[in-house]
Specification:
alpha/beta, Rossmann fold
Length: 308
């Protein structure tokens, strides 16, 4: 089977079959990653450039490790130490890179739509590693993989997405994916951090009550408060946010059931999650990090035209 698309720009563009194909291919690559020799020659003839105009640690390292595990040739580009800092345009930068015969571009950019712009102008396959407040498709895929691995299914799961919904590309990609796969979604947070028309636009339920959400859900996917994206204060203080929406160990122990705690990272400890929750038995946060490599291997492999 092959993907229905040449690029991975967002979950919005993928079919349910595309998602299932990526997740099932990721299962095969996760088995590879458990072996003593974790490298396969699958993309030995492919050159990939990591084009990061925005700071990143986990996503960039995860993509680079996935590329090297597949034996691809890897180029790393950081805007702050390149000609982009001297005023070179995005298109000029990429055309210069493509003249080096690059097959695939993994791109993170602070402008929503930047990967879509590139996809219209250059022949290489584009992978969106996060664009502005739009989408972060591989994070949603690894989140889905982690949920399915832990709970055995996606269809019918009750997933609460908690925190800074307004500024989160992870939230948007998760909502698109989970709805396509038949899960129920509840978004939770302060009214100032939840877009007004999200319920009508995306078909999700909204609550401002954390306790209600935790009692309802099977999975709590907790988002980072993105202060760097907020142009004005949207809540009184981080301490007040923690009192109203921070998840604490005692809170989980009093639910009378087990739920799964997830977080895309980086965690603001003591704000959205207390440390004994992030590091505790309910958390699969480190599993998400591990699964990210397998999922990104699967996406790159399939986008390179390989069949699963």
């Amino acid at each position: 089977m092959k993907l229905s698309t040449k690029h991975l720009l967002g979950i919005k563009d993928l079919t349910k079959e595309d998602i299932q194909l990526i997740l099932s291919t990721a299962e095969q690559f996760k088995e590879v990653l458990q072996r003593p020799v974790k490298k396969v020659p699958s993309l030995r003839d492919i050159t990939i450039v990591n084009l990061f105009y925005e700071n990143s640690t986990r996503t960039r390292m995860s993509f680079e490790l996935a590329e090297r595990r597949l034996s691809a040739d890897v180029l790393n580009f950081t805007a702050s130490s390149s000609s982009a800092a001297k005023g070179e345009t995005l298109l000029d930068t990429v055309n210069n890179i493509l003249s080096m015969k690059v097959d695939m571009v993994v791109m993170r950019h602070s402008a929503s739509g930047a990967p879509h712009f590139l996809a219209k102008h250059i022949p290489a396959a584009i992978v969106n590693a996060g664009d502005g407040i739009n989408e972060h498709p591989t994070q949603a895929l690894l989140d889905a993989f982690s949920m399915r691995e832990k709970l055995g299914k996606l269809e019918g799961l009750k997933v609460a997405i908690i925190g800074d919904i307004m500024h989160s590309r992870v939230a948007l990609s998760n909502m698109y994916l989970l709805r396509k796969m038949g899960a129920e979604i509840l978004v939770v947070g302060p009214p100032t951090l939840i877009p007004k028309y999200i319920s009508e636009a995306l078909g999700v339920r909204v609550t401002y009550n954390l306790q209600e959400a935790l009692k309802w859900c099977d999975v709590a996917n907790v988002l980072r408060i993105q202060l760097e994206r907020q142009n004005q204060p949207l809540f009184s203080s981080l301490r007040e946010y923690n009192l109203a929406y921070g998840i604490k160990r005692k809170m989980l122990e009093n639910l009378g059931k087990d739920i799964v705690i997830m977080h895309p990272g980086p965690i603001n400890r003591g704000v959205e999650l207390d440390s004994d929750v992030a590091d505790g038995p309910y958390s699969i946060i480190l599993n998400q990090v591990e699964n990210g490599v397998a999922v990104r291997m699967a996406a790159l492999y399939l986008l390179a035209g390989r069949e699963s």
